[in-house]
Amino acid sequence: MAWSQSARKPMIGLLFRAQQHAARGYSYSAFQAHLSSSNVDQSATLLRRFSSEVPASEQMNLIKQLRERTSAPIKDVKSSLVSCNWDIDAAQKDLRKRGVVLAAKKSSRTAAEGLLAIAQDEKRAAVVELNCETDFVARNDVFQYLASSLAKLALSARDPGELVFPFGPDYLENLNVNLDHPKLSGETTVQSAVTEVAAMVGENVKFRRGFIMSTTAHGVVCSYMHTCPQPGLGRLAGLITLEAEDSNAPLDALQRVGKSIAMHIVATKPLFLSKELVSASAVENERDILRTQAESSGKSQMAMEKMVEGRLRKYFEEVVLLEQKYVVNDSTNIKSVLNDLSKEVGSKVTLGNFARMEVGEGVSKA
């Protein structure tokens, strides 16, 4: 009997499946009866079950397209395409459904890499930290878009009423965020957006923390981001507020000097704004350490006291912002820089607050 090419394919598939079931202890007649009892077309079922019906070149093209759409790992992309018979739209939907499960499996893994993102206006700035497991994912455009979106959301959220307001993930995670990206679209909660991106990139992704800094006086919020893959993103951030007593003082000069001081903060890691703000316990602890070191010198009591006081001044120069040597010009300190700025604008300029943030600081990488 002559068989057409179209009839031969389902028959070959049928015999192949019959052989498989026979090897498991099923007879051909039982297998055929099982197919007959199903309310589906047999040839369609057979064709749908065999991914080999899609040419290898087309399979690679579909994997590439779905990777570009979702940024999901190749293993998960291929798995969804195979389970959805290489229907790319169905596979994309399947990946989104599996996202919560995939993200949950990875949530216990350490996420110490990532990016800081900043958003600011004339009076306020918001910085957030979004973590992942590798710097490779930190370069992913979806990850970077989400980080920037979270910073903008933090800036637009209700005013906390504090000049410096640190916050954790619970401050934003239940708020809605509007996403407008080829791979992310629509309105969803921050928590859901983070989970979806985690599924796309195949790593543990966490929104860890953030802070908002603002000024209410005649002044500016100045920022500096270090190691920037693009504007508003980086691994290190420094922020300060500068305020002028005279409301007519030009703010552009404050902004120029303030950005430079923010860069200085990133480089020098100050702990306190002024000597007056160093706690008495911190000073006494440092004094005890210096006194013990001086006693080993074998010098007189008076000489040791002078040694302790000299080293204590050095300690202040290391940890107090206003006492630190200016990284741009180490012949002067930050206090002198502010005095020069005050003369330039014709009004006393004070440094209100400062902050420094670094990706992954304080996260145990063990």
UniProtKB/TrEMBL annotation:
**Where does this chain mainly localize?**
mitochondrion
The segment(s) forming the Translation elongation factor EFTs/EF1B dimerisation domain are 125-361
Subcellular compartments: Mitochondrion
Work out whether the entry's keyword set contains Transit peptide. yes
* UniProt GO molecular function: translation elongation factor activity
State which residue ranges cross the membrane: none
What is this protein's name? Elongation factor Ts, mitochondrial
Q: What organism does the record attribute this protein to?
A: Oryza meridionalis
